[in-house]
Amino acid sequence: MEFANSFYFTAPEVGLTVSGLILLLVAAFVGQKTTRLITILAVAALFGAAAFTGNLLTNSAFELGADAWGGLYRMDAFGSFAKILIYLATIGCLIVTPKFFEQTAEYRAEYPILMLFGAVGMGMMVSASDLMTLYIGLELSSLSSYVLASFIRSDMRSAEAGLKYFVLGALASGILLYGMSLIYGFTGSTSYIGIRTALEGGVSAGSMFGIVFLLAGLAFKISAVPFHMWTPDVYEGAPTPVTAFFSTAPKVAAIAMTMRMALDPFGGQIEIWQQIVIFAALASIIVGALGAIGQENLKRLLAYSSINNVGFILIGLAAGTEQSASAMLVYLAIYVAMSLGSFVALLMLRDNDGNQLETFADISGLSVTRPALAWCLLALMFSLAGIPPLLGFWGKFVVFQAAVEADMILLAAIGIAASVIGAFYYIKFIKVMFFDKPADVVVAEKSSARWVVLGLCVLFISPLGYLATLKLGEFADRAASALFFII
Protein backbone atom coordinates (compact mmCIF):
# COMPACT_ATOMS: atom_id res chain seq x y z
CA MET A 1 0.00 0.00 0.00
CA GLU A 2 2.82 2.37 0.88
CA PHE A 3 4.46 1.61 -2.47
CA ALA A 4 1.22 2.44 -4.32
CA ASN A 5 0.82 5.68 -2.34
CA SER A 6 4.37 6.70 -3.23
CA PHE A 7 3.62 6.24 -6.92
CA TYR A 8 0.39 8.23 -6.55
CA PHE A 9 2.05 11.15 -4.75
CA THR A 10 4.87 11.30 -7.31
CA ALA A 11 2.54 10.80 -10.30
CA PRO A 12 3.40 14.19 -11.91
CA GLU A 13 7.13 13.35 -11.96
CA VAL A 14 6.52 9.74 -13.03
CA GLY A 15 4.09 10.80 -15.75
CA LEU A 16 6.42 13.45 -17.16
CA THR A 17 9.38 11.04 -17.07
CA VAL A 18 7.46 8.35 -18.97
CA SER A 19 6.18 10.97 -21.44
CA GLY A 20 9.70 12.26 -22.01
CA LEU A 21 11.11 8.78 -22.63
CA ILE A 22 8.31 7.87 -25.07
CA LEU A 23 8.70 11.15 -26.97
CA LEU A 24 12.47 10.59 -27.06
CA LEU A 25 11.95 7.21 -28.70
CA VAL A 26 9.49 8.74 -31.18
CA ALA A 27 12.04 11.42 -32.09
CA ALA A 28 14.80 8.83 -32.49
CA PHE A 29 12.81 6.47 -34.72
CA VAL A 30 10.66 8.88 -36.75
CA GLY A 31 13.03 11.84 -37.01
CA GLN A 32 12.76 15.61 -36.83
CA LYS A 33 9.57 15.81 -38.87
CA THR A 34 7.64 15.06 -35.68
CA THR A 35 9.10 18.03 -33.79
CA ARG A 36 5.92 20.09 -33.76
CA LEU A 37 3.82 17.08 -32.75
CA ILE A 38 6.26 16.27 -29.94
CA THR A 39 5.98 19.87 -28.73
CA ILE A 40 2.19 19.61 -28.63
CA LEU A 41 2.36 16.29 -26.76
CA ALA A 42 4.87 17.74 -24.30
CA VAL A 43 2.51 20.65 -23.59
CA ALA A 44 -0.34 18.16 -23.10
CA ALA A 45 1.78 16.13 -20.65
CA LEU A 46 2.58 19.28 -18.68
CA PHE A 47 -1.10 20.27 -18.62
CA GLY A 48 -1.92 16.82 -17.26
CA ALA A 49 0.76 17.10 -14.57
CA ALA A 50 -0.50 20.58 -13.62
CA ALA A 51 -4.11 19.34 -13.38
CA PHE A 52 -3.14 16.37 -11.19
CA THR A 53 -1.00 18.60 -8.97
CA GLY A 54 -3.88 21.06 -8.70
CA ASN A 55 -6.04 18.24 -7.36
CA LEU A 56 -3.42 17.45 -4.72
CA LEU A 57 -3.33 21.13 -3.74
CA THR A 58 -7.10 21.57 -3.40
CA ASN A 59 -8.07 18.11 -2.06
CA SER A 60 -8.80 18.42 1.68
CA ALA A 61 -7.77 14.79 2.19
CA PHE A 62 -4.15 15.80 1.54
CA GLU A 63 -4.21 18.98 3.61
CA LEU A 64 -1.51 17.72 5.97
CA GLY A 65 0.59 16.24 3.18
CA ALA A 66 2.30 12.86 3.16
CA ASP A 67 5.74 11.31 2.72
CA ALA A 68 6.70 9.04 -0.17
CA TRP A 69 9.55 6.63 -0.87
CA GLY A 70 10.55 6.19 2.74
CA GLY A 71 10.72 9.89 3.57
CA LEU A 72 12.79 10.94 0.54
CA TYR A 73 9.94 12.92 -1.00
CA ARG A 74 7.28 15.14 0.59
CA MET A 75 3.90 15.68 -1.04
CA ASP A 76 2.33 18.80 0.45
CA ALA A 77 0.58 22.01 -0.55
CA PHE A 78 3.86 23.94 -0.70
CA GLY A 79 5.40 21.62 -3.28
CA SER A 80 2.14 21.44 -5.24
CA PHE A 81 1.85 25.26 -5.40
CA ALA A 82 5.42 25.60 -6.68
CA LYS A 83 5.03 22.78 -9.21
CA ILE A 84 1.88 24.31 -10.70
CA LEU A 85 3.82 27.53 -11.33
CA ILE A 86 6.71 25.53 -12.83
CA TYR A 87 4.45 23.56 -15.17
CA LEU A 88 2.45 26.60 -16.31
CA ALA A 89 5.63 28.61 -16.96
CA THR A 90 7.12 25.73 -18.95
CA ILE A 91 3.91 25.41 -20.99
CA GLY A 92 3.99 29.14 -21.78
CA CYS A 93 7.63 28.95 -22.89
CA LEU A 94 7.00 25.91 -25.11
CA ILE A 95 3.99 27.52 -26.81
CA VAL A 96 5.96 30.60 -27.92
CA THR A 97 9.15 28.75 -28.92
CA PRO A 98 8.68 27.12 -32.38
CA LYS A 99 8.32 30.37 -34.34
CA PHE A 100 11.62 31.64 -32.92
CA PHE A 101 13.55 28.87 -34.69
CA GLU A 102 11.85 29.28 -38.08
CA GLN A 103 14.62 31.59 -39.31
CA THR A 104 17.48 29.21 -38.44
CA ALA A 105 15.56 25.92 -38.85
CA GLU A 106 17.33 24.65 -35.73
CA TYR A 107 14.26 23.65 -33.77
CA ARG A 108 14.64 19.98 -32.93
CA ALA A 109 12.58 17.41 -31.06
CA GLU A 110 15.10 17.38 -28.20
CA TYR A 111 14.02 20.87 -27.14
CA PRO A 112 10.57 20.04 -25.67
CA ILE A 113 11.94 16.76 -24.27
CA LEU A 114 14.68 18.62 -22.41
CA MET A 115 11.98 20.94 -21.06
CA LEU A 116 10.03 17.92 -19.78
CA PHE A 117 13.04 16.41 -18.02
CA GLY A 118 13.91 19.83 -16.61
CA ALA A 119 10.37 20.05 -15.18
CA VAL A 120 10.81 16.60 -13.61
CA GLY A 121 14.01 17.73 -11.89
CA MET A 122 12.41 20.94 -10.67
CA GLY A 123 9.45 19.03 -9.27
CA MET A 124 11.83 16.80 -7.33
CA MET A 125 13.69 19.83 -6.01
CA VAL A 126 10.66 21.53 -4.49
CA SER A 127 9.26 18.32 -2.98
CA ALA A 128 12.54 16.89 -1.69
CA SER A 129 12.67 16.05 2.01
CA ASP A 130 16.17 14.60 1.87
CA LEU A 131 19.46 16.07 0.66
CA MET A 132 19.98 13.17 -1.77
CA THR A 133 16.63 13.72 -3.48
CA LEU A 134 17.29 17.44 -3.65
CA TYR A 135 20.67 16.98 -5.33
CA ILE A 136 19.36 14.46 -7.88
CA GLY A 137 16.53 16.81 -8.84
CA LEU A 138 18.88 19.77 -9.00
CA GLU A 139 21.32 18.02 -11.32
CA LEU A 140 18.55 16.71 -13.59
CA SER A 141 17.23 20.24 -13.97
CA SER A 142 20.69 21.77 -14.39
CA LEU A 143 21.87 19.32 -17.06
CA SER A 144 18.81 20.09 -19.15
CA SER A 145 19.40 23.82 -18.71
CA TYR A 146 23.05 23.65 -19.84
CA VAL A 147 22.02 22.05 -23.14
CA LEU A 148 19.12 24.47 -23.67
CA ALA A 149 21.39 27.51 -23.15
CA SER A 150 23.67 26.37 -25.99
CA PHE A 151 20.89 24.99 -28.19
CA ILE A 152 21.64 27.10 -31.29
CA ARG A 153 24.84 25.52 -32.56
CA SER A 154 25.45 28.19 -35.19
CA ASP A 155 25.35 31.06 -32.67
CA MET A 156 28.60 31.77 -30.81
CA ARG A 157 26.71 33.71 -28.13
CA SER A 158 24.56 30.68 -27.38
CA ALA A 159 27.58 28.38 -27.15
CA GLU A 160 29.33 30.87 -24.87
CA ALA A 161 26.25 31.16 -22.65
CA GLY A 162 26.00 27.39 -22.34
CA LEU A 163 29.69 27.05 -21.46
CA LYS A 164 29.57 29.81 -18.84
CA TYR A 165 26.44 28.37 -17.31
CA PHE A 166 27.97 24.89 -17.22
CA VAL A 167 31.26 25.94 -15.63
CA LEU A 168 29.73 28.25 -13.01
CA GLY A 169 26.84 25.83 -12.41
CA ALA A 170 29.30 22.99 -11.78
CA LEU A 171 31.16 25.21 -9.30
CA ALA A 172 27.91 26.05 -7.49
CA SER A 173 26.91 22.39 -7.42
CA GLY A 174 30.30 21.56 -5.89
CA ILE A 175 29.81 24.19 -3.19
CA LEU A 176 26.31 22.87 -2.52
CA LEU A 177 27.53 19.27 -2.34
CA TYR A 178 30.33 20.22 0.04
CA GLY A 179 27.80 21.94 2.29
CA MET A 180 25.63 18.82 2.21
CA SER A 181 28.60 16.64 3.17
CA LEU A 182 29.35 18.89 6.14
CA ILE A 183 25.72 18.82 7.26
CA TYR A 184 25.66 15.03 6.99
CA GLY A 185 28.98 14.68 8.78
CA PHE A 186 27.97 16.81 11.75
CA THR A 187 24.29 15.82 12.06
CA GLY A 188 24.48 12.19 10.98
CA SER A 189 21.48 12.47 8.67
CA THR A 190 20.52 13.59 5.17
CA SER A 191 16.78 13.79 5.87
CA TYR A 192 15.34 17.20 6.69
CA ILE A 193 13.64 15.90 9.83
CA GLY A 194 16.84 14.26 11.03
CA ILE A 195 18.87 17.42 10.39
CA ARG A 196 16.38 19.62 12.23
CA THR A 197 16.31 17.25 15.20
CA ALA A 198 20.10 17.11 15.37
CA LEU A 199 20.46 20.90 15.18
CA GLU A 200 17.98 21.43 18.01
CA GLY A 201 20.64 20.08 20.38
CA GLY A 202 23.02 22.84 19.33
CA VAL A 203 24.85 23.99 16.20
CA SER A 204 28.50 23.06 15.95
CA ALA A 205 31.05 25.05 13.96
CA GLY A 206 31.04 22.36 11.25
CA SER A 207 27.24 22.48 10.93
CA MET A 208 27.38 26.26 10.69
CA PHE A 209 29.90 26.06 7.84
CA GLY A 210 27.65 23.50 6.16
CA ILE A 211 24.67 25.85 6.37
CA VAL A 212 26.74 28.70 4.89
CA PHE A 213 27.98 26.56 1.99
CA LEU A 214 24.48 25.30 1.29
CA LEU A 215 23.11 28.83 1.20
CA ALA A 216 25.96 29.92 -1.09
CA GLY A 217 25.13 27.15 -3.56
CA LEU A 218 21.43 27.99 -3.43
CA ALA A 219 22.19 31.71 -3.90
CA PHE A 220 23.80 30.85 -7.25
CA LYS A 221 20.70 28.98 -8.37
CA ILE A 222 18.41 31.92 -7.57
CA SER A 223 20.83 34.56 -8.98
CA ALA A 224 21.25 36.35 -5.66
CA VAL A 225 24.18 38.72 -5.08
CA PRO A 226 27.11 37.97 -4.77
CA PHE A 227 26.55 34.82 -6.86
CA HIS A 228 24.72 36.57 -9.69
CA MET A 229 27.63 37.02 -12.12
CA TRP A 230 26.41 34.41 -14.61
CA THR A 231 22.92 35.81 -15.05
CA PRO A 232 23.38 38.79 -17.45
CA ASP A 233 25.72 36.88 -19.79
CA VAL A 234 23.60 33.72 -19.91
CA TYR A 235 20.34 35.66 -20.33
CA GLU A 236 21.82 37.68 -23.20
CA GLY A 237 23.54 34.79 -24.99
CA ALA A 238 20.92 32.06 -24.68
CA PRO A 239 18.08 31.87 -27.22
CA THR A 240 15.29 34.23 -26.09
CA PRO A 241 12.73 31.42 -25.45
CA VAL A 242 15.33 29.70 -23.26
CA THR A 243 15.97 32.96 -21.42
CA ALA A 244 12.22 33.23 -20.81
CA PHE A 245 12.33 29.71 -19.40
CA PHE A 246 15.33 30.46 -17.15
CA SER A 247 13.63 33.53 -15.72
CA THR A 248 10.46 31.68 -14.77
CA ALA A 249 10.30 27.93 -14.09
CA PRO A 250 13.86 27.31 -12.76
CA LYS A 251 13.59 30.54 -10.76
CA VAL A 252 10.43 29.27 -9.04
CA ALA A 253 12.07 25.90 -8.35
CA ALA A 254 15.26 27.43 -6.94
CA ILE A 255 13.42 29.89 -4.67
CA ALA A 256 10.99 27.21 -3.45
CA MET A 257 13.91 24.86 -2.79
CA THR A 258 15.67 27.61 -0.83
CA MET A 259 12.52 28.31 1.19
CA ARG A 260 12.06 24.67 2.11
CA MET A 261 15.72 24.26 3.01
CA ALA A 262 15.83 27.39 5.18
CA LEU A 263 12.49 26.93 6.92
CA ASP A 264 12.40 23.14 7.29
CA PRO A 265 15.78 21.58 8.30
CA PHE A 266 17.21 24.96 9.37
CA GLY A 267 13.90 26.40 10.58
CA GLY A 268 14.92 26.18 14.22
CA GLN A 269 18.17 28.08 13.59
CA ILE A 270 16.87 31.23 11.90
CA GLU A 271 19.34 33.45 13.77
CA ILE A 272 22.26 31.69 12.00
CA TRP A 273 21.17 32.31 8.42
CA GLN A 274 18.95 35.38 8.80
CA GLN A 275 21.80 37.91 8.53
CA ILE A 276 23.11 36.19 5.40
CA VAL A 277 19.69 36.37 3.76
CA ILE A 278 19.24 40.04 4.74
CA PHE A 279 22.58 40.91 3.12
CA ALA A 280 21.75 38.92 -0.03
CA ALA A 281 18.31 40.56 -0.25
CA LEU A 282 19.53 44.16 0.04
CA ALA A 283 22.59 43.56 -2.15
CA SER A 284 20.44 41.94 -4.85
CA ILE A 285 17.96 44.83 -4.82
CA ILE A 286 20.68 47.46 -5.09
CA VAL A 287 23.01 45.66 -7.53
CA GLY A 288 20.08 44.62 -9.72
CA ALA A 289 18.75 48.18 -9.86
CA LEU A 290 22.09 49.93 -10.42
CA GLY A 291 23.35 47.30 -12.87
CA ALA A 292 20.30 47.71 -15.10
CA ILE A 293 20.54 51.49 -15.43
CA GLY A 294 23.31 51.54 -18.04
CA GLN A 295 22.12 48.58 -20.11
CA GLU A 296 21.13 48.98 -23.74
CA ASN A 297 20.47 45.30 -24.41
CA LEU A 298 16.92 44.47 -23.30
CA LYS A 299 17.70 40.88 -22.30
CA ARG A 300 20.61 41.99 -20.09
CA LEU A 301 18.37 44.62 -18.52
CA LEU A 302 15.74 42.00 -17.69
CA ALA A 303 18.50 39.81 -16.23
CA TYR A 304 19.34 42.57 -13.75
CA SER A 305 15.61 43.02 -13.18
CA SER A 306 15.47 39.33 -12.24
CA ILE A 307 18.27 39.83 -9.69
CA ASN A 308 16.43 42.86 -8.33
CA ASN A 309 13.19 40.93 -7.90
CA VAL A 310 14.97 38.05 -6.17
CA GLY A 311 16.08 40.60 -3.57
CA PHE A 312 12.47 41.57 -2.85
CA ILE A 313 11.48 37.92 -2.51
CA LEU A 314 14.37 37.27 -0.09
CA ILE A 315 13.04 40.02 2.20
CA GLY A 316 10.16 37.64 2.89
CA LEU A 317 12.57 34.79 3.63
CA ALA A 318 14.55 36.99 6.01
CA ALA A 319 11.38 37.59 8.05
CA GLY A 320 11.06 33.82 8.48
CA THR A 321 7.36 33.75 9.39
CA GLU A 322 4.41 31.85 7.94
CA GLN A 323 2.90 35.11 6.67
CA SER A 324 6.15 36.09 4.95
CA ALA A 325 6.40 32.67 3.29
CA SER A 326 2.87 33.13 1.94
CA ALA A 327 3.82 36.62 0.70
CA MET A 328 6.85 35.17 -1.10
CA LEU A 329 4.66 32.68 -2.95
CA VAL A 330 2.19 35.39 -3.97
CA TYR A 331 5.07 37.55 -5.25
CA LEU A 332 6.53 34.55 -7.07
CA ALA A 333 3.27 33.82 -8.90
CA ILE A 334 2.96 37.45 -9.99
CA TYR A 335 6.63 37.61 -10.99
CA VAL A 336 6.27 34.55 -13.24
CA ALA A 337 3.48 36.28 -15.19
CA MET A 338 5.43 39.55 -15.45
CA SER A 339 8.67 37.88 -16.53
CA LEU A 340 7.07 35.50 -19.02
CA GLY A 341 5.06 38.33 -20.55
CA SER A 342 8.14 40.55 -20.85
CA PHE A 343 10.18 37.93 -22.70
CA VAL A 344 7.27 37.00 -24.98
CA ALA A 345 7.07 40.70 -25.89
CA LEU A 346 10.82 40.65 -26.67
CA LEU A 347 10.30 37.57 -28.85
CA MET A 348 7.86 39.62 -30.91
CA LEU A 349 10.55 42.20 -31.75
CA ARG A 350 11.70 41.09 -35.21
CA ASP A 351 12.76 42.92 -38.36
CA ASN A 352 11.81 42.18 -41.97
CA ASP A 353 14.55 39.55 -42.28
CA GLY A 354 13.33 37.71 -39.19
CA ASN A 355 16.28 38.75 -37.03
CA GLN A 356 15.67 39.17 -33.32
CA LEU A 357 15.84 42.79 -32.07
CA GLU A 358 17.19 43.32 -28.56
CA THR A 359 18.16 46.96 -27.97
CA PHE A 360 16.45 50.17 -26.90
CA ALA A 361 17.21 51.68 -30.31
CA ASP A 362 15.06 48.99 -31.91
CA ILE A 363 11.94 49.86 -29.86
CA SER A 364 12.25 53.60 -30.37
CA GLY A 365 8.80 55.03 -31.09
CA LEU A 366 7.20 51.59 -30.89
CA SER A 367 3.92 53.13 -29.72
CA VAL A 368 3.49 54.66 -33.19
CA THR A 369 4.46 51.64 -35.30
CA ARG A 370 3.23 48.77 -33.10
CA PRO A 371 0.90 50.32 -30.50
CA ALA A 372 -0.60 47.08 -29.13
CA LEU A 373 2.83 45.64 -28.36
CA ALA A 374 4.01 48.94 -26.87
CA TRP A 375 1.03 49.17 -24.52
CA CYS A 376 1.55 45.56 -23.38
CA LEU A 377 5.20 46.34 -22.62
CA LEU A 378 4.15 49.49 -20.76
CA ALA A 379 1.85 47.48 -18.48
CA LEU A 380 4.52 44.85 -17.86
CA MET A 381 7.25 47.38 -17.06
CA PHE A 382 5.03 49.42 -14.74
CA SER A 383 4.02 46.21 -12.98
CA LEU A 384 7.66 45.16 -12.57
CA ALA A 385 8.36 48.60 -11.11
CA GLY A 386 5.56 48.05 -8.59
CA ILE A 387 3.42 50.96 -9.73
CA PRO A 388 -0.28 50.71 -8.72
CA PRO A 389 -2.86 49.70 -9.76
CA LEU A 390 -0.96 46.93 -11.57
CA LEU A 391 -0.53 43.63 -9.76
CA GLY A 392 3.25 43.95 -9.37
CA PHE A 393 2.49 46.55 -6.69
CA TRP A 394 0.51 43.97 -4.71
CA GLY A 395 3.43 41.51 -4.78
CA LYS A 396 5.80 44.06 -3.25
CA PHE A 397 3.15 45.26 -0.81
CA VAL A 398 2.50 41.84 0.75
CA VAL A 399 6.24 41.15 1.14
CA PHE A 400 6.93 44.50 2.80
CA GLN A 401 3.84 44.11 4.98
CA ALA A 402 5.07 40.69 6.18
CA ALA A 403 8.51 42.16 6.96
CA VAL A 404 6.97 45.02 8.95
CA GLU A 405 4.77 42.63 10.93
CA ALA A 406 7.88 40.58 11.72
CA ASP A 407 9.40 43.75 13.26
CA MET A 408 11.89 44.16 10.41
CA ILE A 409 10.81 47.73 9.70
CA LEU A 410 14.29 48.96 8.73
CA LEU A 411 14.71 46.16 6.17
CA ALA A 412 11.31 46.97 4.65
CA ALA A 413 12.11 50.70 4.57
CA ILE A 414 15.44 50.13 2.79
CA GLY A 415 13.73 47.79 0.33
CA ILE A 416 11.03 50.37 -0.44
CA ALA A 417 13.63 53.11 -0.93
CA ALA A 418 15.75 50.90 -3.19
CA SER A 419 12.72 49.96 -5.29
CA VAL A 420 12.53 53.60 -6.39
CA ILE A 421 15.92 53.17 -8.12
CA GLY A 422 14.54 50.25 -10.11
CA ALA A 423 11.64 52.33 -11.34
CA PHE A 424 14.12 54.43 -13.37
CA TYR A 425 15.09 51.80 -15.91
CA TYR A 426 11.56 50.45 -16.24
CA ILE A 427 10.33 53.95 -17.05
CA LYS A 428 13.10 54.17 -19.66
CA PHE A 429 11.11 51.64 -21.70
CA ILE A 430 8.15 54.01 -21.67
CA LYS A 431 10.25 57.03 -22.60
CA VAL A 432 11.87 55.26 -25.57
CA MET A 433 8.67 53.65 -26.87
CA PHE A 434 6.33 56.63 -26.47
CA PHE A 435 8.49 59.76 -26.77
CA ASP A 436 11.45 58.93 -29.05
CA LYS A 437 11.49 59.13 -32.84
CA PRO A 438 10.12 55.91 -34.39
CA ALA A 439 12.78 53.52 -35.67
CA ASP A 440 10.12 51.54 -37.56
CA VAL A 441 12.15 48.33 -37.71
CA VAL A 442 9.77 46.00 -35.83
CA VAL A 443 7.44 44.09 -38.13
CA ALA A 444 3.93 43.04 -37.12
CA GLU A 445 3.70 39.81 -35.15
CA LYS A 446 1.39 37.27 -36.79
CA SER A 447 1.74 34.44 -34.27
CA SER A 448 -1.60 34.04 -32.50
CA ALA A 449 0.02 31.74 -29.91
CA ARG A 450 2.36 34.50 -28.77
CA TRP A 451 -0.43 37.06 -28.61
CA VAL A 452 -2.51 34.68 -26.49
CA VAL A 453 0.33 34.08 -23.98
CA LEU A 454 1.18 37.79 -23.88
CA GLY A 455 -2.48 38.75 -23.51
CA LEU A 456 -3.01 36.33 -20.62
CA CYS A 457 0.07 37.62 -18.80
CA VAL A 458 -0.96 41.26 -19.26
CA LEU A 459 -4.52 40.48 -18.21
CA PHE A 460 -3.29 38.78 -15.05
CA ILE A 461 -1.05 41.68 -13.99
CA SER A 462 -3.69 44.29 -14.89
CA PRO A 463 -6.13 45.63 -12.26
CA LEU A 464 -8.40 42.70 -13.20
CA GLY A 465 -5.76 40.45 -11.66
CA TYR A 466 -6.80 41.64 -8.21
CA LEU A 467 -9.91 39.50 -8.65
CA ALA A 468 -7.63 36.46 -8.43
CA THR A 469 -5.73 37.62 -5.34
CA LEU A 470 -8.21 36.14 -2.86
CA LYS A 471 -7.88 32.65 -4.32
CA LEU A 472 -4.14 33.12 -4.88
CA GLY A 473 -3.71 34.26 -1.28
CA GLU A 474 -5.74 31.28 -0.04
CA PHE A 475 -3.54 28.79 -1.90
CA ALA A 476 -0.37 30.61 -0.82
CA ASP A 477 -1.51 30.53 2.83
CA ARG A 478 -2.19 26.81 2.56
CA ALA A 479 1.23 26.23 0.99
CA ALA A 480 3.01 28.29 3.65
CA SER A 481 1.12 26.46 6.40
CA ALA A 482 2.32 23.13 5.00
CA LEU A 483 5.89 24.41 5.01
CA PHE A 484 5.67 25.22 8.73
CA PHE A 485 3.92 21.96 9.61
CA ILE A 486 6.29 19.89 11.75
CA ILE A 487 5.68 16.16 11.82
From TrEMBL:
An example of a Gene Ontology BP annotation on this entry?
ATP synthesis coupled electron transport
Family membership: Belongs to the complex I subunit 2 family.
Q: What is its EC number?
A: 7.1.1.-
Task: Indicate where this protein is primarily found.
Answer: membrane
Q: Mind listing the UniProt keywords for this protein, alphabetically? A: Cell membrane, Membrane, NAD, Oxidoreductase, Quinone, Translocase, Transmembrane, Transmembrane helix, Transport, Ubiquinone
Q: How does it assemble?
A: NDH-1 is composed of 14 different subunits. Subunits NuoA, H, J, K, L, M, N constitute the membrane sector of the complex.
Known catalysed reaction(s)?
a quinone + NADH + 5 H(+)(in) = a quinol + NAD(+) + 4 H(+)(out)
The broad enzyme category this protein falls into is translocase
Q: What is this protein called?
A: NADH-quinone oxidoreductase subunit N
Q: Name one GO cellular component term.
A: plasma membrane
The UniProt function text for this chain reads:
NDH-1 shuttles electrons from NADH, via FMN and iron-sulfur (Fe-S) centers, to quinones in the respiratory chain. The immediate electron acceptor for the enzyme in this species is believed to be ubiquinone. Couples the redox reaction to proton translocation (for every two electrons transferred, four hydrogen ions are translocated across the cytoplasmic membrane), and thus conserves the redox energy in a proton gradient.
Q: Which gene encodes it?
A: nuoN
Domain called NADH:quinone oxidoreductase/Mrp antiporter transmembrane: residue spans: 128-422
- InterPro entries documented for this protein: NADH-Q_OxRdtase_suN/2, ND/Mrp_TM
Record's subcellular location? Cell membrane; Endomembrane system; Membrane
User: Which parts of the chain span the membrane according to its record?
Assistant: 6-30, 37-57, 77-97, 109-128, 165-187, 207-230, 272-294, 301-319, 325-349, 372-394, 406-427, 448-468
What is the membrane topology here? Multi-pass membrane protein
What the entry lists under PANTHER family is as follows:
NADH DEHYDROGENASE
What would be an example GO MF term here?
NADH dehydrogenase (ubiquinone) activity
